[in-house]
Amino acid sequence: MKKIVFFLTLIISFKTIAQGGSQIDSIRQRIIGSQSDSLKAIEYLEIANRHKQKDSVFKNLSLSLDFARKAKIPKYISNSRVNLSNWYNNYVSRQASVNEHLGAIAELEKFDFKSGIANHYIRLGYRYNSTNQDSANLFINKGVVLAKQAKDDNVILTGLLALGNRAFYNLDFEKALALYIEGEEICRKNEKLTNSIKHASFLEYIGYVMQRTKQHQKAIYYFKESMKIYEKNANAKHIANMQTNIAEEYFEKKEYEKVIPFLNKTIQYNNTYNVQKNVNLGAYLKRAYCYGKIGKTEQAEKDYLKAISLAKLDQNSHHLTNAYISLGDFYRQEKKYALSEENYLLAETEAKKRKDTESLEKIYKGLANIKGAEKEFETALSYAAKASQESEKQSELSLNEKIVSLEKKYESEKKEQEIALLTTKHQVAEKQKYIYIVISLLLLATGFFLFFGYKNKIRTAQKLEELNTLKSRFFANISHEFRTPLTLIKSPVQQLQKDATTEQEKQLQLIDRNANRMLELVDQLLALSKIDSGQLQLILKEGNLNDFLHSIADPFIYLAQESNKKLELDFDIPNENYPFDKDILEKITTNLLHNAIKYSDEASIVNGQLSVDNQTLKVSIRNYNSSLTKTDLQKLFERFYQKNTNQTGAGIGLALVKELITLYEGTIHTNLENGILTITFEIPLHTNLKNAVVSYANTNEPVSDASFSSDTNEYSDELPILLITDDNASIRNVLKDIFKEEFKIYEAENGEEALKIAEKEIPDCIISDIMMPKIDGLEFTKQIKTNELTSFIPVILLTAKTTPETKLEAIKNQADGYLTKPFQHDLLKELVYQQINERKKLQKRYSQELILKPTEIVIDSVDEKFISRIEEVIHAEITNQDFNTEAFAEKMHVSRMQLHRKLKSLFGVTTTEFIRNERLKIAVELLKNEKLSISEIAYSVGFNDVYYFSKCFKDLYQKAPSEYYKR
Q: How many CA atoms lie within 13 A of 498 on its CB side?
């Protein structure tokens, strides 16, 4: 069998060599047939890379450099000398490699080729990496500076990775992280580098920093992001590495069920690509441990046995010892003491061969535990003594190693003094050894008794944890169950309110109000159940905190006015971006403001102060409540706290606030003086939070299904237009921040200004407030919908007014959407996208219609009139070859841009495309007449070029005119 394998290997080797030789011969033929020195420089470099013999490699690299110099192309000179430097480093000496880099730098300076010079400086830094740290830093930094001047991202990335790795291995993780992040940002901004292997590498190294700084969840995130890119590049080796890294992080987090799938993939990769057996051995041991932790003992046992068989096959005594010890530990935990002892003894045999004191100590401790469990205490104490002896031997070995190290390092009197001191300590340690053995035996005996007590405590803690889990699950389930009946209560109530008498309407409003309150409680219960079960995480994202808090707080001013109270807010927040969780901060702020207004005395003032100091948000809210006492403060944040049966309870709103602030690693304080209640909370505005996931720009942003970009040459780079109308600048800023990536945004302070912008720019969608100066939102919507130019534009009203009458008035004025402040960002985005997508469906219908049918395309009578006018102009002018976009706009009595925007929204095409499509639709009808030729039809519908007519026809109908009716 071995002979057969040998001959097969030999045949494959000869075949590979033959293929390599054939490729080299092919390149040589290209060189002979070429007169280009630059091409020869490239080809000789290719031959050098394919050769294996060092002399042949050097010869071809030298030829490559000669032709690069003849061609006077600095890039090729640089590439050849980089390869020559590597050859010197591999086959001559490091100094020869350094000299080659220095010579290359001098030569490239004559060409002022900064990119190549930078590359050689960085590689020069690598050469000094292990011998002179200062020189390495100097050269790499110099290379990065030059690469940035040359704007060569590839070379910049090489330098940043080198500097980052140096900082990482010197344990300067903060500096390493900054360099890795800088490199990753360059990759994201450069389309050619995005999702490249280099991009994956930087994400991978960021993951290593998170791994070393014990930020396991973040490490998992970056390893997964890196793995996605490796998968796109089909890089199996790196995919396997990332799977192993992710498994390690889940293992550290003790999430053993999540470890197993990644270890499965690692093992599969190692088997597929014949990776060293000892690599798979470690994976089997770790997977076995995880199986054991989740109660899958059969799978665990199989993996331990597989690891042992691999260690035997590899003939590695060290790995075999570890595998036996691991299986022994497993059987001991399963109380299979005979099997456990058997494996410990096998491990002992292997460990004694290598005098492995560390392994022997583990083995004897395991045997002592077994004998203790079997109540063979004398034997247990004997093994414990052996474990202690092995521990002492380790100390002696460690001490001797230190002495040898000192003898090699120092040759002065100081060395002799330190050795003498260590020798003295060694002698003292010898005398203390016997004392330690006696103490160890006593501690071991005590440990047995403590162990059983500790085990009972663990069982109790596990039961409590199970109980908490069941409680949280119960709250989550019951909260979901409440939603359906509450919805069924609210729907008939709203129907009955239409025909109710005044007295009945009051009672129905009471039902509806309490149903809303129940829904609010259900949402709060769901949030609390997530917190209790540890499923709620902070999602931190950069945003304008000042604008965000204004948008949340402003609607409560109207709520206070409706309750005959006054809300005064003082903002001292810089107009800057901070990382914060929008959803959680909104829940905290709205709950506190709502409670402050609700539980303050009649006609009183509620004050709020919001400020940022030293990366911390501080919010203080004060209200006057004459019935509150200091004894109530301690129970204020208890769920459903009620002072007495005659007063309304606090519900779970404040309890939820406290839980959320705790999750945010913040603080909350209360104070009551002279009837004035002050609630102050502080939360950090940075990303170093243990329960946080950082969402970077454009990373987790939801992507709409709508495709808004035009595919025509005339307006190929235009974005859809969004008009934002609100007299509050902070609200406008928040809305701009939400839509800035997908829309070109115009803004107006009032309805009058907005009407002018709408008629001029013809936006794709409008978001408007209702309460505005000059022209309010309702009148603004009415005028938009009755104007021929703008009637098709969707209008979404966004307001603090929540009364049913206002909503009804908005619908009467043909508003397409209605949301109340504070609003959910995702909900608003989806509403805008839906409105634009509805227009897309109408546009699709137009492309399928043979002739214009206004009543089937749109509902709006204003749009029907506009389409009828289009139809009249088209029928009159379509056969005119000179009829173009300017003439069309003039006939319609609008500007060229207004016509373009109107047609784009109604039909999804530009003016030029519309004219061409209408001509082609008429041509389809004419094709039915077999007496007319293709050229006659082309000229009759306004085309002056038959070839261009056929091309346009085929683009629209996927068939040539001659094939359309099988002429």
A: 5
Q: Could you give phi then psi for residue 872, rounded to 5 degrees?
A: -65, -45
- What pLDDT shows up at residue 529? 66
Tokens of 639: 């769920």
Sheet holding 577-580, edge to edge: 577-580, 538-544, 692-695
Hey, what amino acid is at 679? I
- Report how far apart, in Å, the C-alpha atoms of 718 and of each of 190, 789, 834 are: 22, 20, 20
**683 backbone dihedrals φ, ψ, rounded to 5°:** -135, 145
Listed in order, the ranges of the chain carrying CATH 3.30.565.10 are: 537-695
Per-residue pLDDT at 419? 38
Between CA 902 and CA 756 the distance in angstroms is 16
Of 720, 605, 729, 622, which Cα lies nearest the Cα of 669?
622
Q: Using the CB atoms, write b or e for 299-320: b if 16+ within 10 Å.
A: bbbebbebbbebbeeeebbebb
Phi/psi at 672 (5° precision): -130, 115
Query: Distance of alpha carbon 644 from its chain centroid, rounded?
Result: 49
pLDDT in tens, 862-905: 666 777 777 777 777 776 767 777 877 777 777 888 777 777 77
For residue 822, the model assigns a pLDDT of 65
User: Which backbone phi and psi does 822 adopt, to 5 degrees?
Assistant: -70, 150
What CATH homologous superfamily does 721-823 map to? Answer: Response regulator (3.40.50.2300)
Return the pLDDT at 473: 63
State the distance between the two ends of the chain, measured CA to CA, in whole angstroms.
71
Report the C-alpha gap between 107 and 73 in whole angstroms: 12
CA of residue 840 relative to chain centroid, distance:
30
Q: For the chain, where do the domains classified as CATH 1.10.10.60 start and end?
A: 849-964
849-964, what's its fold?
A: Arc Repressor Mutant, subunit A (1.10.10)
Own/partner long-range contacts of 471-476 (Cβ < 8 Å, ≥24 apart): 471/532, 472/529, 472/532, 472/533, 473/529, 473/533, 475/525, 475/526, 475/528, 475/529, 475/532, 476/525, 476/526, 476/529, 476/530, 476/533
Alpha carbon distance 78, 162 (integer Å): 19
- The pLDDT score that the predictor gives to residue 204 is 92
In angstroms, the CA 548 to CA 734 distance is: 6
CATH 3.40.50.2300 in the chain is located at 721-823
d(CA 587, CA 570): 20
pLDDT in tens, 310-337: 888 878 888 888 889 988 898 988 889 9
Residue 149's pLDDT is 92
Two tokens, residue 102: 């220095």
Distance CA 686, CA 771 (A): 36
Topology of domain 537-695, CATH? Heat Shock Protein 90 (3.30.565)
Q: Specify burial of residue 519 (Cβ count, 10 A radius: 0-12, 13-18, 19+).
A: middle
Residues of the chain with pLDDT under 50: 1-20, 406, 408-424, 426-427, 644-647, 649, 697-717, 850-851, 853-859, 967
Per-residue pLDDT, 715: 38
The answer for 766, left when phi > 0, alpha when psi is -120 to 50, beta otherwise, is beta
What pLDDT does 853 receive?
Answer: 46
User: Tell me, what's the pLDDT at 857?
Assistant: 44
By CB neighbour count within 10 A (0-12 exposed, 13-18 middle, 19+ buried), where does 242 fall? buried
- CA atoms of 71 and 766, how far apart (whole Å): 61
How does 42-69 read in b/e, with b if 16+ C-beta sit within 10 Å?
A: bbbbbbbeebeeeeebbebbebbbebbb
pTM to 2 decimal places: 0.41
Predicted local distance difference test score (pLDDT) of residue 443: 74
Neighbours of 754 (CB within 10 A): 28
